[in-house]
Amino acid sequence: MMRWINLLFLGLVIAAATWTYQVKHEAEEKLAEIRELEKKIALERETIDLLKADWAFLSHPSRLERLVKRYEQELGLRVTDSNQLILADELPGVPVFTPGDGIGDIIAGEAIDDLQTGSIEEGQGN
């Protein structure tokens, strides 16, 4: 009787050790995956910072002014005066469309689509 109990406990210990090893191995794989993702995130952040710096350089007013002057004749560009800039509050409101205007209905999101294609059998449409 004692021998069977010992063998049972030995089997349980081996099963527990195997399970513990599998859990540890999975945790190590997940940790490696997390580290790889952290590296990718850091690289993306560096790329974003670089792109922001490029954008700041490319959109700098003095550079744009030089480009406008250089290509003024070819492209018909003019330097923007400071009084040409407005605030967001000064923009016009949402346009009002008359009902029945096809484009206005589409823009307002109220268009009724009566078009029926061959892929929809009669009676199955909206």
Plain-language structure description:
Helix content is 62%, strand content 0%. It has a domain at 2-78. The mean pLDDT is 83. The protein contains four helices and no strands. The chain is mainly alpha-helical. Residues 24-54 form a coiled coil. This is Cell division protein FtsL. Keywords: Coiled coil. It comes from Ahrensia marina.
Summarize the amount of helix as a percent range: 55-70%
Taking the alpha carbons of the first and last residues, their distance comes to 76 Å
**Cα gyration radius (Å):** 34 Å
Low-confidence stretches: none
Structural class: mainly alpha
Strand runs, count: 0
Mean of all residue-level pLDDT scores: 83
Brief summary:
The chain is an all-alpha fold. Helix content is 62%, strand content 0%. The chain is built from four helices and no strands.
List the SSEs and their pairings.
Blueprint: H1 2-58, H2 61-70, H3 72-75, H4 102-108
Give keywords.
single chain, 126 residues, mainly alpha, 62% helix
